[in-house]
Amino acid sequence: MALTDLQTGLIALGAAGIAGVLVYNKWQERKHRRHAEKVFGRDHADVLIDGAPERREPVLGDAGDAAVEAAAAPAAAEPALPVPEFDLADAKTETVVAVTLSEPLPGGELVRRIAPLFEPAHKPVRWYVLDESARTWQELTPQCALRAGELRAVLQLADRSGALDAAEFDAFMQGLKQIADRFLAVVDYPVRSELLQRATALDEFCASVDVVIGVNVVSGSTAFAGTKLRGLLEAAGMKLAGDGAFHMCDDAGATQFTLANIEPELFDADGLKNLSTQGLTLALDLPRVAQGPQVFDRMIAVAQQIVQALHGSLVDDNRNVLNEASLSLIRKQIAEFQGRMIAYGIMPGSVVAARLFS
C-alpha cells in the first residue's frame, strides 16, 4: 500500500524529533562533565585507573615517618620450624613411617584408638609423638598428655617368630590407611618389596646367631633336695621368678642366665620344700646378654658350686662330662657368635637385641 503525503510527513517529523532529543542529551552530558572537572580537577590519581598511591600519615620528622611505616607494615609470619630428625629407631632392624594428622589430638586418646588397628600385623609397632615445645620425640603411651600432630610409627622387621611376611605387611598397611581415612592424615607409606627383602635378610642373619648355651648338673645316687638347692642358689645371688626358674640378673635387673628343673616340674616357693630332682639345667640366651664369655664363666662358677655342694656332675645334653677343654671350646664359640652380631651392627644384650630375640 502506497504512503500518502500526510503519513510521509509525520514519519519525517518523528525522526527529526528523536534526533533532536539525542543531540540535546549529548550537549547536557558534555556540559556536566566540564563542570565536574572544574570542581574536582584531575591532578590526583584515579585509584581505579592508576592504582592506589602510597599512603602517608601526617607525622613530624623522619623518625615519625619510620615509626608509621613500621606500624603500617603487616607482621611477618613466623617461619615454620623444621621437624627434628627422628633417631629412635634402628635402621637395620626397623622401619619408620611418618604420619602427619590434619588436626592434633590428645596423645593418650590417640594411641588407644590406633593400637588395635595394628594387632593383625603381629610384629611390634612403637609410636612416637613430636613434643612441639621441647622439639623432641617422645614415645606415645596411653598416659601421654601431649597433643599429637606429627607422629612416627616404628615397625620391627623380625623376631623369633620369623620375618615380617606379606600378610603382616598388608595388615600394617591397612592400619596406616585407616589412620589416613579416620584422621585425614598424610602418611609416607613404605615400599612393600624393599621392606620384605630387608625383613627376610634380617631374619636369616638372626637365625644364624640365635643360640642358647645350656649345661646340666645331674645328681649321683641321691637326688637334689629342693630346700638345699634353694638356699644354695639364693646365696649365689639367684632369685626365683614367676616362670618357674631361678634367674641371675645384672645390676639393671636384666637376666644373664637361668637355672631350671631338668624334670618337667617347675620350681615354686612352696613346692621346693618337698621337691627332689635328678638334675638342673643352666641356660644362657646368647644374643640377649652382653659380654657373653664373662657371663658364661659366671654361670659355670654357679654350676660348679652346686656340683661340689650336692655331689653332682657337670654334663652336656648327651650326659658327657664337661671338662676344662670342653668349656674353653664353648667359650670360644660364644665369642665368635657375639663377634658376628657386633660386625652386623647388633650389639649383644642391647635393647635392639632384646626386641629381635623375643
How would you sum up this structure, described in words?
- The model is unreliable at 35-53 (pLDDT under 50).
- The strands form four sheets. The chain has a six-stranded antiparallel sheet, with helices on one face. Strands 3-2-4-1-7 form a five-stranded antiparallel sheet. A two-stranded antiparallel sheet has the order 5-6.
- It has helices spanning 5-40, 61-72, 107-114, 166-183, 192-209, 226-235, 292-310, 324-344, 351-356; strands at 94-106, 125-131, 136-139, 147-156, 158-159, 162-163, 186-187, 212-218, 224-225, 239-240, 246-249, 255-261, 276-277, 279-285, 313-315.
- It has two domains: 94-206, 2-Layer Sandwich (Alpha-Beta Plaits); 210-356, 2-Layer Sandwich (Cell Division Protein Zipa, Chain: A).
- α6 (226-235) packs across α7.
- The protein has 358 residues and is an alpha+beta fold.
- A hairpin with a 4-residue loop joins β2 and β3 (136-139).
